[in-house]
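Reading group handout, session on sequence-to-structure problems. Before we discuss, look at one worked example. The prompt was deliberately terse, the way you'd type it at a terminal:

> structure Short-chain dehydrogenase/reductase SDR

The input record follows.
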Amino acid sequence: MKYFIITGTSRGIGESIAEQLMAPDHHLFCISREKNMRLLQQSSSITYLAFDLNQVDQIEALMEQIFQSIDKSHAEGIYLINNASMIAPVAFIDTAEAMEITRNIQVNLLAPILLSASFIKHTKHGAMDKRIVNISSASARNHLPGMSLYSAAKAGLDVFSQCVGLEQNSAQAPVGIVSIWPGMIDTELQREARTQDKAVFPSADVFDSVKESGMLTTPEDTARQIITFLFKKDFEHGEVVDIYDYSKLTEQR
Ligand SMILES: NC(=O)c1ccc[n+]([C@@H]2O[C@H](COP(=O)([O-])OP(=O)(O)OC[C@H]3O[C@@H](n4cnc5c(N)ncnc54)[C@H](OP(=O)(O)O)[C@@H]3O)[C@@H](O)[C@H]2O)c1
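And the output record:
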C-alpha cells in the first residue's frame, strides 16, 4: 500500500492530484478546510480531514492521527504533498493587517514546515519510499509589488527544502524532499490575483494578460506532471525544480 498526505484538495491542483492518485493500492489523506465531497464520492480509500492549516499548534496532533492509521510495516511508500496555499493579502505591506500577514505565513510556510518535520519524525526508521513535495512558485524569484508575503513564503519554502535535503543526505533512511514551481495554472488562486483592485495591486494586469494570452495550464495537466515527478527514479532530492512548459511562452511570441 502507498499512502499520500495531500494538503489543499478542495479545489485546483490539489483536487486534481488527489483524483489522479486514486488507485486500489493507494490510500489518500486529504486536508483542506472544506471537505471535497466530489473526491469522497469517487473513492472509499480517502480519509478526509477538514482542517484549517492556520491552527499550527494542532498540526502535530493531526499528523499523529494520520500516522495512527498507517500500517508502516506494510507500507511500500509514504508521501507528503504540501500544496495548500493562499495569496491574500495582495497588498503593499504597510496596508496589510497583522492578522492577515500572520495567516499568509502560517499557511504558506509554517504549516508545510511543521508537516514536513512531523512527517520525517514519523517515517525516519522506515525502509519504505518516503518523499516530500513542496509546491512552491516562481514567485519565489519573480517579485511583484503587493505579493511580498506570498513570494517570501515560497522563497522560504525553497530554502527549507534545500536545507532539509542536505540534512537527509546523512540520514540512515533518508526522506526525499523537493520544491516544485508548477507554472501558471487556471485556478482560483490565479483568478484572485487578476481580479484584485488595480489601484491596490497594479500587477493584476500581468495576471490578466497571462490568462488572455492562453498561457495558463490546466490543473489536470499540472497534477499529471507533479505525480510523474513524485515517482521519478532520479527524484531531484534537495532541489528546486521548475516544471513549467516554457514553450507556451514561445508560442505566444
Ligand atoms: N495557480 C497558479 O498559477 C500557481 C502558480 C504557482 C504556484 N502555485 C501553487 O500551487 C499550489 C496550489 O494552488 P492552486 O492554484 O490550486 O490554489 P487554489 O485553487 O486556490 O487552492 C488552494 C487550496 O489550498 C487550500 N487552503 C487554503 N488555505 C487553507 C487553510 N487555511 N487550511 C487548509 N487548506 C487551505 C484550499 O482549501 P480550503 O479553502 O477548502 O481550505 C484549496 O484546496 C499552491 O501551493 C500555489 O502556491 C499555483
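Points for discussion. First: The mean pLDDT is 96. Second: The two ends are 46 Å apart (CA to CA).
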